[in-house]
Design a protein that fits this description.
The chain is of the alpha+beta class. It has 2 helices and 5 strands. The termini are far apart. The longest helix is centred in the C-terminal third of the chain and has 10 residues.
């Protein structure tokens, strides 16, 4: 089972809000996930991005592959 770290949209129409989740690679984007790692709000003035560094590092060490968007957000924050 390949685990991916990706964004899942939970916001409403024209007000996006995303969760950063560890999910199975075989599941569709909106289906069940394994664990919530953080959140991303692109509508706030500062592009609010929070992530639990310990959980993120744990999943990376277990072989999870982050999506390109998640990696760019993590690099932008400097984690």
């Amino acid at each position: 089972m390949a685990v991916k770290i990706r964004l899942t949209r939970i916001g409403s129409h024209k007000k996006p809000f995303y969760r950063i989740v560890a999910a199975s690679g075989e599941k569709a984007v909106q289906k069940k996930f394994i664990e919530i790692l953080g959140a991303y709000n692109p509508c706030s003035k500062t592009d609010q991005f929070t992530i639990d560094k310990e959980k993120f590092d744990k999943w990376i060490s277990l072989g999870a592959k982050p999506s390109d968007t998640v990696m760019s957000l993590v690099k932008k924050q400097g984690k």
